[in-house]
Amino acid sequence: MPLFDRKDKSRYATFTRRTLLVSGGMGAVFATLAGRLYQLQVVEGAEFKVRAEDNRVNVRLLAPPRGRILDRFAVALADNRRNYRVLLVPEQASDGVKPTLAALSRIIVLTDRQREKILRDVAENKPFVPVTVVENLSWDDFSRINLQLPYLPGVQPDVGETRAYPYGEELSHILGYVAAVSPDDKKHDDDPLLDLPGFRIGKRGIEKEFDAEIRGTAGVERIEVNAYGREIRELSRDPGVPGADIHLTIDFQVQDVMAKALGDQSAAAALMDVETGDVIALSSTPGFDPNLFNVGITTEQWQALTTDDHNPLMNKAIGGVYPPGSTFKTAVALAGVDAGIATPDFTVFCSGTYKFGNHDFHCWKHSGHGAMNLTSAIEQSCDIFFYELSRRVGIDRIDEAAHALGLGLPTGIELPGERAGLIPSRAWKRATFNQPWEQGETLITAIGQGYVLATPLQLCTQAARIASGKRVSPRLTRYIGHHQQKRPKIEPLGFSDAALSAVRAGMAEVCNTPSGTAYSWRITEPGFEMAGKTGTSQVRRITREQRLEGQTSTDNLPWRFREHALFIAYAPVDKPRYACAVVIEHGVAIQHYQVQMARDILLFAQKRDPVNLPAAWPVAAASIGGKG
Amino acid sequence: MNTRHYAAARRTRSIGEKLFEVNWGLVMLIALIASVGFAMLYSVAGGHFEPWASKQIVRFVIGLVLLVVIACVDIRLWMELAYPAYGLSLLLLIATTIAGKVGGLGAQRWIELGPLQLQPSELMKISLVLALARYLHKLSVEEVSHPLTLLIPLAMIGAPVVLVLAQPNLGTAIILALDGCSLLFLAGLSWWWIGPAVAGVVASVPIAWQFLHDYQKQRIMTFLNPSSDALGAGWNISQAEIALGSGGVAGKGFIQGTQSRLNFLPEKETDFIFTALGEEFGLVGALALLLLFAVVIGYGIRIAMSSRSQFGRLLAMGVTLNFFFYILINASMVMGLIPVVGIPMPLISYGGTAMMTVMVGFGLLMCVHVHRQIEIPRSAGTIL
Lengths: 628, 384
Description:
The structure holds two protein chains of two kinds.
Chain A (H helix, E strand, L loop, with lengths): L5 H38 L1 H12 E6 L6 E2 L5 E13 L8 H9 L6 H13 L6 E4 L4 H10 L6 E10 L7 H4 L2 E3 L2 H6 L11 E3 L2 H5 L1 H5 L3 E7 L5 E8 L7 E3 L3 H11 L4 E7 L5 E7 L5 H5 L3 H9 L8 H4 L9 H10 L9 E3 L2 E4 L2 E4 L7 E3 L1 H6 L3 H11 L1 H10 L21 H8 L5 H8 L9 H13 L8 E4 L2 E2 L12 H16 L18 E7 L6 H5 L15 E8 L6 E7 L8 H16 L10 H6 L4
Parallel strand pairs in A: 2-10
Antiparallel strand pairs in A: 1-8, 2-3, 3-4, 3-5, 6-7, 8-9, 10-17, 11-12, 11-21, 13-16, 14-15, 17-18, 19-20, 20-21
Chain B lengths: L1 H8 L5 H7 L2 H21 L8 H20 L2 H29 L7 E3 L2 E3 L1 H18 L3 H4 L2 H20 L3 H17 L4 H21 L2 H11 L8 H15 L10 H4 L11 H34 L3 H25 L17 H19 L9 H4 L1
Helix pairs in contact in B: 3-4, 3-14, 4-16, 5-6, 5-8, 6-8, 6-9, 6-15, 6-16, 8-9, 9-15, 12-14, 14-15, 14-16, 15-16
């Protein structure tokens, strides 16, 4: 065509060439895009899938119900109480947060501080996050709010769970308590539950000792959330494993009697089955209200507990160590008989004073007891007899006997904070003071003074071992959940029958002959009589000067310098079933309160006889169906 | 004289004949791609036509009508309208930019025309292609590279690019510049110009950086180091990549994309809809869409090559490349290959203006196809 010149052809050729070039470029771009898609979706696909899941799934931990702590008849000593609380969802509060709170405060009491905290929580969280308004409401308050609910938009009643100790102080030292998790707790425990807000863990007692078992295993709830964190739906729910119930050997009835017997003294007592070592009651007074620590203790309450000279936070039954005083003479007596020294013919004349080297050793009875044999020396607690006996027996055999009775070693009770006490020996003195043992110290040791220290539970164990002749050890737990607690095989004690009989005879006379030190407070009911051994232990030495001034008693000194009053006992006297020990700190008095307490406890325990009652677990639980 | 030449080129055909000439296969392909868009809009709305899919369908139908109408208009009319359209677009662009600056409203990209919002920058994409094609139509290969004749098209490109940059709208400015430059390239611009120009652009990057707005700089910095702003601007990029990546090969299934359904995905119905597709249909779905796009572009190239006029060729390639640049920038952006620059995925993303630009572009492409046999003399263009 004439209209088109050559140049148009060259234009077309250039255009075609360059279009092909551009097409190639576009092809390369598409190849690059496809390659990038391959990289994202295939090569890194798995990683991005995880990130997408992380995005959309919030994992929420569910606290499992904490196991209960039950006595041997399934009385709940530590239980989970319903925690009635009220939550507020700010975005649903169509009247506004402040007016809603004002409306709420017409129904329940809201302090200004609470109100401030609620408003702060509301400000810090997304508007769909429920904020706790009040917890631990009474049922009355809770139902009043429920009634008014139609007029309180955004208010959500909620029932949670919290720990409750229905018997307060009486069991505080056995159960311990639960409290908020401290940073220290997290150092040794990586259980994710510890990070749950409001989670409580065991801090003392059984709650602490068996925390892992009682706590259970965290449940997991997987919730789908959107980009703003709003919950869309629940994806899955694993309720976790509830904590195991702890079945104690304690009989709450006896525990109650024991706690009431100890009263407001600074004292400790233990009662156990002489055949099995089952601890039926274990008390340390004063106690504290374990519920305080769960709800949150105030500074004033904490001050009161820590500054009290009766030391309510200490479990004196296992953590208090006392010179055992004359109760220790039973150990010396056993060693004496088995050493062949304290034969039935062996007598010592007590003049009230015993010369040893340059020292005068006194009997508690200044006028002297006259001629004493083993039985009468135990009965009247003659010091002179045991000075002479111990001098002959020697510290090594006394140590051996004391250890056989369970002194100087932890009993292994299932509670934290148990102390070992102390039975001094040559090796111990060498290691501690780098000095040789002196024989005078043997004499002091023989009457349970000097270095000797024992816990009330050790004393109770000692009584049980003398009564049964078996190496029983105190045990507090029968079942952890469904698992029976293992008991070591109970071995014989190792003393000869002659030795045991002699000591038992002495202890029987302590309570049951008029000259016995505990005769006035014996059990008079036939068949329930007890045998025992009294003891007093010096807190401060009576000086020679004081003695010359006629002071032989510490009753008139300030409380903290008075002597400790001790008593170990078992009953019934001829066929022992229960052993008991009572220690009253600085509790020496003419009335021998510690003996009266042991008498009341032992009499009640024998009459009730919890050991021979059918225990509630596993029998009762099996009839309900148990775990299934 | 011209009219005689036009008439001499080929006799005027009836509307019916022209409709018959329309490449309905390409129209079906476009409709298919748009339907993928409807499906995705339906999905990201949680399985509802409201609020996006229904409106998008209406827009597409209007666009389809527009496409066919434009296709049937004589290409020479479009050629005659090229300069006036460019002039009008430029005026509107100046008006918006000035109004935006004076009004102090920050980014001003549209003019309120009663209920309608007119985006002059979108209009300019079409007008620039038309005007450049018209201008380059008359030039021989040698003339294109002549410094004086080259000044005019460079000014035609430069003016709107500068105005759009000032709005500021970096994405559209880049597309305009790419559209214009590629037409110059196709018209036969000498490599002696191209080489130094590319070198110049590369060298001027540090200088250009100075002129970028803070938010633009921020986007680029975030792109280069997404973790620097993991919860701010980097959030978009990383969430988009998570959406795509978690789709894997086969995808999570229709309406099963967690990233889009739970709002982790930013602008899921507009700029980032491709990632929603990648999440729900996986590599298979994403590649299939890219393939459909490639086939449309292939059609465009074939139509350009078969046109017997330089205007038709340049116009066809211009609108095809415009379509391609949309895809290139959007896909690269959501895949984390380039910084985020607010460009939608053509035919897929929700939005009216881009849909209209693309459909008008396809209308012009179809017009070239329908009138491929018409030869327009080189000199003819000078008369108007």
